[in-house]
Request: fold
Amino acid sequence: MGGATAQLSPAAARRIALAAQGFADPRPAGRVDVRHLRRVLERVGLLQIDSVNVFSRSHYLPVFARLGPYRRELLDELTAYTARPRRPEMFEYWAHAASLVPLAYHPLLRWRMARAHLDPWQSIRRIAHDNPTLVADVEQLVVDRGPVVAGDTGIPRPPPRPGHMWNWHDGKIALEHLFWTGRITTAKRVHFERYYDLVERVLPAEILALPTPSEHDAKRELVRISARALGVATEPDIRDYFRIPSADTKQAIGELVETGELVPVQVAGWALPAWLWHDARRPRTVQARALLSPFDSLIWFRDRTERLFDFHYRIEIYVPELQRRFGYYVLPFLLGDTLVGRVDLKSDRQAGVLRVQSAWIEPGRDPRHVATELAAELALVAQWQGLGAIDVRPRGNLASTLAGVL
Reply:
């Protein structure tokens, strides 16, 4: 793949990465419309989804982080999250993880659908091997009655089992196998429950009619999208974005270097070589302010987050409460071009209160300045969430300063 031909400072790499993800542009001054959302989606490529709703559904937050307050219905109309999306432009699939992906990427993911029998998710692979009759019966149920939910299979949920996060019954697992193969997809979500239906009844015919590229060409295009969205990245960074195997990622990087789309660089302090997207923006400053979802594409690969921002971050949802260091649903706080703190947030919708369960500042930062900017962002997000007050609990090394500012 060739040696590094240029040097970048860590600060320059950080600003390039932020610009590639859409944080170098000011938020819109006026009303946010669907064109703004499309621009965000064009930059990041996909939105990871997650069921946790203690603060907000995660897929809404990356858009807010980049644009500020917007009508969530705008995003719903681009997805299957309304009963009748007016302009469906995204579909659900396992891309990074469970993700909302532009319809145009459907052909690029068909190789993964075709390899569902090799899926590393053991229970999904097992159901097709051990109980093909159930899979066929569940598929026929979708054909006859779709859209359906997992409960429509008539299979009861098993008792809770240690180590089984979702406690799925075999009917749900069969539906997820069919989802992985691309034979069914999400028709809509109601209270975030997935309704499954045949792809031909959900996705536009013109999308399904698009030619299927070779697996090699599809993976190279996904690597291209990833590299552009990251700005500057190591091979593991690029590989992680769409979860492409390492050998395929390395081959695609080499081909993109040959075409001049990727430029080898060395970032001071990075142990691995990196590649720069050929026309990545190189801003001298970034004046961002945002609360970041744990599943935001800027920070979802934790090794990269630590390398870019010198910020160690782990989500603690699945950590027993007494063992949590920072809190349950902790969002890093981006200020300028740096992650300066983190807050554990909960939307108490019944009381109409945004609860700051804990607030923390990174070493060497000015508590008053960070608290003032964080208070302004919290006020903005509380209003967006329809919450009328902010309550700061006395936990964390920034909590008292933040409470004083608010």
